[in-house]
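Fig. S4 source data, part A: sequence.
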Amino acid sequence: MCWPAPTPLRRTRTKAGDHRPGPVDPRGLLWLTGDHHIHTQYSPDAQCLVSEQVARSAQYGLDWMVITDHGGPAHQKFSVESTNPDIVVARSANARTLVFQGLEWNIPAAEHGTVFVAPGKDEVGLLKEFEGTYDGTVTKTSAASAANEKLARDGVAFLGNAVRSGRVNDALMLANHPARRGVDSPHEIRGWRDADPRIAVGMEGAPGHQAAAIPGPGHEKNGRGYYDNGPSSDSFAGYPPESYVTYGGFDWMTSTVGGLWDALLAEGKPWWISANSDSHKVYLDTRRNATDTGSGGNNANTPYDATPTTPPAATPTRSTPASPSPPTATSGRASTATPSSAPPTSPTAP
């Protein structure tokens, strides 16, 4: 995903305590390539250290990245604080890469989303408060209901208020794999954006886990992005069966001409699409984490080992994969990352 960042980012106080982006000279914009969906050992189904993920991201050309381990009670209670020192060290060791701390939000009444904030003195406190108050798993509000949908909108508004009050310099939210389970309804996505369009700015157009469809032990029938589901009791009834798979690796909401993404842009509502890794493990990696069963999956060959690995000197092949693979933004419908309106700004200046 590419993101324009102003240099420098200027903020204008429109009233006491109000911190909002001021006018930006377009001549100061530059493109930054990044990934807003990366997991580490602080997710129960992932395995890489923060240092490994950041070093590999920098090695393969990312300008910015977000650590987004799975939200939930344990993450809120322990991991937000535990992850931060590792991120601080990784920032120092990779000075040319912007490393953001975030989380994968269990959106009330919906799917997952990336939430992240600009580095600062209250990044840990804000993320902990947000997760403890608005995470669907923590608050037991994952089921579809009007009250739970409102809680999700309130969560976006909370982040916006935190930025305007100066508690953090910036925050962003993007919907992850939005059509995978059919639980992100059109009105919910519109509701998140309308709650604060400076915070809720887009969704994954090309979700991670693209290698899931490569035939192999443990995922013989998986689709790209692990899009191989069907409707449940919480799914939006208006979604057809074909919405639960990807098309050329792209989410149905993005790939459908006249679909939700087109509709939002036609309504004059800027809504970005992204391509990212959703990195948990690496295709054909032999390291195994605590959740692997040892029954023949890609990571079932060796016991769990948290020792950092040295990035390869040469460009990896399928036998020596990279983690994560950086996304790119190119022209054409299937990979565009640009809406018809002015783009949002990155939380910090490079």
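Fig. S4 source data, part B ends here. Residues 24 and 237 are 42 Å apart (CA to CA).
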